[in-house]
Amino acid sequence: MGNAIIRFDNVSKVFPGGTRAVDDLSFEIYEGESVVFVGPSGCGKTTTIKLLNRLEQPTHGNIYLNGKDTSKIDVIALRRSIGYVIQDVGLFPHMTVAQNISLVPRLIGWSITNQQVRVDELLRLVDLEPSAFKDRYPHQLSGGQRQRVGVARGLAADPPVILMDEPFGALDPITRAQLQDEFLRLRSKIKKTILFVTHDIDEAIKLGDRIAVMREGKIVQFDTPGKLMREPADEFVKDFVGKDCGLKLMKLLKISDIMVPTLNRIIERSGVVEAKRLMEQRESDILLVVDDHEVFQGVIRFELLADRNQGSVKELMERDIPTVKTEEEIRPTLELMLKKGVVWLPIVDEEERLKGIVTMTHFACFFSSEEWGQEETS
Amino acid sequence: MSILNYFIKNLGLIFRLTLEHIEVAMVAVIISTIIGVAIGIVITRIKKLATPVIGIAGILYTIPSLALFGMLIPFIGIGVKPAVIALVLYSQLVLIRNTFVGITQIDRAVIEAGKGMGMSSWQFLRMVELPLALPVIMAGIRTAAVMNVGLTTIAAYIGAGGLGWLIFRGIASVYTEQIIAGAIPVTLLAIGVDYFFVFLERFLTSPGVRH
After folding, report:
1. Nearest-10 crossing angle of helices B130-155, B80-104
2. CA distances from A361 to A222, A230, A259, A287, B20 (A)
3. Which residue in A15, A56, A319, A330 has its CB near the most CB atoms, within 10 A?
4. What ipTM was assigned to the predicted interfaces of this complex?
């Protein structure tokens, strides 16, 4: 992980009247990370992120942004350096889309040209055609389009940190799913530290690098989505994460998480005799063939070698073996195996270098109680 | 026919009195707008003051106009000055209240977004609150302006001039033509002022909130 860009130090927020919205929170968020705060309503998740841009003042403790105590930074400057996107969007109805987006750049004195360039760039980023949307007013947009503009506005002055308070909460499920996907696409393009609030655990799992599950002003568990599902800290987290976490986890994991390395490999220029010897040694009747740069070439089977004593592996191997990349998701891989009727697949990296294999047995093991632990063994 | 004759014969006088009338009403509208909108903004910032301030403006509004004009005479005498002061006092209720309502009715999400984006209080007032409250404030100004045109007629009684002068003279001397020569222009003036402010509101309001 990178450097801690945000640090909460024993932060509490007690509202007048005695409600303890945030209770002695301490945590760190690293640069470029997207952290989702999730929990039932009234758990303090929104208050937590509002403490960062000082829409709420902590009653106890300190908050640091880039190592600086936020209470000592000018509040206007602080807020301009933090993007802010909220559920009800809050677009200014009397301003056009372009004016809404360029507001913060305008406040901090960007030139008109730079503002215009930025507006076009951001509209394209959120998948709205600049020429069609720039001059519209908020009431001329759909809910989803409005929130896209809201996100663009939050990014306008290129703040390193962005707060998103249930940004997709008011949208219909289809639009929400679409915007979530776009959020992921956007995240791969821009390196921002994002604090995201939601009450929807599926959204949290989909969008968060790490998830902070909150309850009554405290963080009950702060972990990666995978860890959260495999090792929930307590009953509350377990219930909150829900029963169908197997399916959720499947969406989350990559092939590299379940593959195993293989030693059954041979370089293509090796001779048949060497291949036979290796097969014997490994007690295997199949070898994976690579070139000098570890790039996967094909496989060689014992049947093909049986009565030969001459020639190279390169001449005899079987080519056109389907492969799967390490970054691939679990489900499509499983589907590919079922479709091709194979029980194993070689796994390669971006440069086609052989990294390992995955077999049906691995999938079975993975989904068995041993990996999932919690429900069956308890 | 005699009315028309009166009009033609006294065209210069009627024209002068109309201008006088407009002047008194306009000066009062301008001054009361500045004061009323300012007070309206202040009470959105210090909410505790809202109820008492609107209450006082409400009491001023209930004083019968002739009584208010009369009360000012011992302090300020007669003429345009006490007339304008009375009109300004009268207009406060509708201006303060509309400014207050116009600003406080702004969507919470807009306020939160503006604050969260780092707008200063002044920037937020100038760039968001006033433009969004404008239709409601303009409606207040329009009401005040039409009301002032009417009250200026009565202010002729304390020597403020204007078209009321013709009406009062006409009543005193049972001169119907003179009464009508004052009444018709003042009615047209009120209607004209109303239309003018409707137009001005349309012109000033962003198309984004005009829909």
Report:
1. 150
2. 32, 20, 11, 18, 99
3. A330
4. 0.86
Final residue in a domain of this structure, among A224, A253, A282:
A253
Q: CB contact, 8 Å: B117 with chain A?
A: yes
Calculate how close chain A gets to B131, using CA atoms only, in Å: 7
pLDDT at B151: 95
Contact A86/B112, CB-based, under 8 Å? yes
CATH number of the domain within which A182 lies: 3.40.50.300
If you count residue pairs, one on A and one on B, with CB atoms under 8 Å apart, how many are there?
A: 81
pTM of the model: 0.76
Tokens 């009301």 — which residue? Answer: B147
Q: Same structural domain for residues A236 and A327?
A: no
Tell me, rounded to whole angstroms, the distance of Cα B75 from its chain centroid.
23
Contact B115 A79 (CB under 8 A): yes
A375: its two tokens: 């429900």
CB atoms B119 and A107 under 8 Å: yes
Q: Which of A92, A141, A164 to mutate to test the interface with B (most CBs of B within 10 A)?
A: A92
Same domain, yes or no, for A224 and A274?
no
pLDDT for res A371: 43
Number of domains in chain A: 2
Best CA proximity match to A310, nearest among A257, A272, A363, A356: A272
C-alpha span between A312 and A298 (Å, rounded): 13
Which of A188 and A63 is assigned the larger pLDDT?
A63
B116 to chain A, any CB pair closer than 8 A? The answer is yes
Considering CB atoms only, which of B108, B205, B211 is closest to A139?
Answer: B211
Q: B208 vs A139: CB contact, 8 Å cut-off?
A: yes
A42 touching chain B per CB within 8 A: no
Window from A275-289, B49-63, B108-122 with minimum mean pLDDT: A275-289
Q: Provide the token pair at B14.
A: 């009627």
Q: Is the pLDDT of residue A242 over 90?
A: no
Tens digits of residue pLDDT in B15-29: 999 999 999 999 999
Instruction: Please name each of the domains of chain B with its CATH number.
Output: 2-210 (1.10.3720.10)
Residue A210 in contact with partner chain B when CB distance is under 8 A:
no
Confidence (pLDDT) at A2 = 61
Q: Which two tokens stand for residue B69?
A: 């004009």
Chain A residue nearest residue B211, CA to CA: A139
Please name the amino acid found at residue A195: L
**Of the residues A253, A278, A296, the one at which a domain ends:** A253
In a domain, A21, yes or no: yes
